[in-house]
Amino acid sequence: MRDTASGHIESKGSGIGHKMQESIWYKGSTSKATNSLSSSSLSANFDSSFFSLMRFSSFLVLAPVFATNVFACPGKSKYGFIPPKPTDLRGPCPALNALANHGYLPRNGQNITIRNVLQVSQDVYNIDPALLLGVAKLGLLTSNEPDSFTLDDIKLHGTIEFDASLSRGDFALGDNTHFNETIFSTLANSNPGVDYYNVTSAGQVQFQRLAESERTNPNLTNTDKEIQFRSFTFALALAVFGNVTTGVAPKNFVQIWFREERLPFAEGWARPACTLDPTSVTALTGEIKEASKWTSSGGCPYVRTGQGDAPTLDSKAICKQLDSLTQGH
C-alpha cells in the first residue's frame, strides 16, 4: 500500500518547454456497424485489469502512424486558456474539456479522433497511449460518425459516462453533462485539515457519492464497469496533478481542473515527469476501488453505441439473454 498519509508530493516536472520524443500511436477503424459484442468480453476480470474491459471493441483495427508534438508553452496564445463559447461543445469529462479549453483539442469540441486524444494526452498529461486506447475507442462508439466524435457525444449514458460521478449529476436525474458544484462539494470538502487528496480520501468520496446516488436515483447504474470508471477517473486526477506512486495530489490543482476545466500552470503545475503507464495507474485505480468499499447495485455491465435515431447496440439486453440461457430459462 502507499503511504497515503504523507503530505509530501514530488514536484519534478519536465518544464513547460520540455521537448517530447516522437511517439507511435494508433488510429481506429472507420467501421462499426457490422460488429457485435462478444459475451466473453462482458465477463472480463475487472479486478485484475481495468483495461480488459476495453478490449471488447476489437473491431477498431489499429494502424501505426507517427505523431507530431503539439505541447507548447501555455503562455502562447495558441494554447492559452479560453472558456468555451455558447456554441462550443463540451461533455462530462473534465480532462478532455480542459484540453479543448486550452486548444490542444479543437476548441469547438468537434471532430475529435482517437489519434487526437492519444497524442495530446501524452503531450500534456504524459499519459502512455496504451492507457487510454480503450477509453478512446469507447469515445468513438458514442458517435454516429465513422472516425470522430464530439465532446458532447460522450455524455451518452452507459458507455463512458457513469452515475455517481465526482462532478456531474446522474443521467436519470437530469443534467449529466455540466459541472455541478453541489455534487463536487463531496470531493472538494474531503480530507479536511490538509491541502492534499489521497487514496483514503478518494475512497471515502466515492463511497459517499455512491450512497447519495443510491438514495436519490431509483434507476442507478452501478456495475463492475461503473466502479472501474469512477476509480480510474480519480486515479488519473491524483496521478496527473500529484504523484502516481504515493497517490497524493494538491487540492488546488485538482479543484481547478474540475471546477474551471483549466490546466493549473499559473499555480505551479507542470507535466508529470514520469509517464503514467497502465501498470502504475491500474495499481492506483485498484487501491482507490478497494478504499471505496464498493458494492454492486446489481445489473449487467453494458455499452451503448450511437446517438439519436441511429441504431444502438445495447449489450445489457444481450447480457440478460446470456444469463437466462445459463440459468436454463
From TrEMBL:
It comes from the Eukaryota. InterPro entries: Chloroperoxidase (IPR000028), Chloroperoxidase-like_sf (IPR036851). This is HEME-HALOPEROXIDASE domain-containing protein. Belongs to the chloroperoxidase family. GO terms for molecular function: metal ion binding; peroxidase activity. Keywords: Heme, Iron, Metal-binding, Oxidoreductase, Peroxidase. Its cofactor is heme b. PANTHER family: PEROXIDASE STCC, STERIGMATOCYSTIN BIOSYNTHESIS PEROXIDASE STCC-RELATED. Transmembrane segments: none annotated. SUPFAM superfamilies: Cloroperoxidase. Residues 77-286 form the Heme haloperoxidase family profile domain. It comes from Mycena venus.
